Amino acid sequence: MLDAERQLIDGRNRLAACKLAKVEPRFEKLNRQDAKAFIVSANSERRNLSKGQQAMAFAFMYPPEKGGRGKKAVVTTGFSRERLSWARTVLR
Length: 92
Hints:
It is a single chain. By secondary structure, the protein is an all-alpha fold. It has 2 domains: about 1-30, no CATH class; about 35-90, no CATH class. Helix content is about 50%, strand content about 0%. It contains 4 helices and no strands. The protein has helices at about 10-20, 35-45, 50-60, 80-90. It is elongated, with a radius of gyration of 16 Å.
């Protein structure tokens, strides 16, 4: 998977396997998707992560805005906003 700047976002192991097998790799573009959102989504679905681990990864990738009070809507899948708040507290 490539972003708009043709930077590899996902599939580094498949790319290495293609090079070893001397096969031309195929690439897909993100099509204006947010690269961070894609990475978090793909990895949380692909990996066997607990709800706490998912929240911690999300909190790491999306820290709260400076001076914000946390009232802005945060879209999370698989874990609660409370768990996200706890994860952000741990990171602080």
